[in-house]
Structure to design on (226 residues):
């Protein structure tokens, strides 16, 4: 009978497995370091992008400007992003993730105002719709004020919120999913452009308009249920 433990094959196997575990450990440590470094660079690029949004607006942003603001090379930029639009998508993803700190929708806003609880908005901004929650942030305010980005941001918010708002519209009014989607687009576009015209500031004019708008929307939804 062959003594496996004493064989050359066993010893070579042990040495191979030991080397494999060592290499695996080194690779995992390297990946963790790379991940931290990569995350830092990506955040620097996004911060530079938002700075350029504030300084010159989206139409004038270039990879060159971002690299200069971030103090990185073009080669470093292209390790992480294909172009400026890719950075925009990443920043909007961050903004939508930020918006999830709240739970409000445009329909919640109507219900709150119609029930005479407008003070709730002043005391708890998490009940505001996503676009208002994001634009209230100093970090994203200039992004939402940029006219060149309005349509694109609205489309991204629509995709993010439709699974919540559309079923609510169907429940409240009894309309079909197709029409509920159209009504949501109408409400989202209108709300966005009015808010942008007011600078996304919740002043007295904004509160007064919200009261009038809630009456308008509530009456319309009520009529649809008949």
């Amino acid at each position: 009978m062959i003594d496996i433990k004493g064989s050359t094959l066993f010893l070579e196997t042990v040495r191979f497995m030991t080397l494999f575990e060592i290499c695996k450990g080194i690779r995992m440590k390297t990946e963790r370091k790379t991940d931290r470094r990569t995350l830092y660079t990506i955040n620097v690029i996004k911060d530079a992008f938002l700075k350029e949004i504030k300084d010159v607006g989206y139409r004038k942003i270039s990879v060159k400007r971002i690299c200069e603001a971030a103090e990185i090379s073009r080669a470093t930029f292209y390790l992480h992003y294909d172009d400026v639009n890719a950075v925009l998508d990443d920043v909007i993803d961050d903004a939508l993730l930020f918006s999830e700190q709240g739970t409000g929708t445009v329909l919640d806003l109507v219900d709150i105002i119609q029930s005479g609880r407008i003070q709730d908005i002043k005391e708890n901004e998490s009940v505001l719709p996503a676009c208002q929650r994001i634009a209230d942030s100093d970090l994203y305010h200039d992004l939402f004020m940029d006219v060149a980005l309005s349509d694109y941001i609205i489309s991204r918010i629509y995709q993010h919120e439709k699974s919540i708002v559309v079923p609510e519209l169907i429940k409240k009014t009894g309309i079909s999913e197709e029409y509920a989607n159209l009504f949501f687009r109408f409400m989202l576009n209108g709300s966005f452009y009015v808010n942008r015209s007011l600078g996304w500031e919740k002043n007295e004019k904004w509160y007064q308009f919200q009261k009038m708008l809630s009456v308008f929307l509530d009456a319309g939804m009520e009529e649809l249920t008949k």
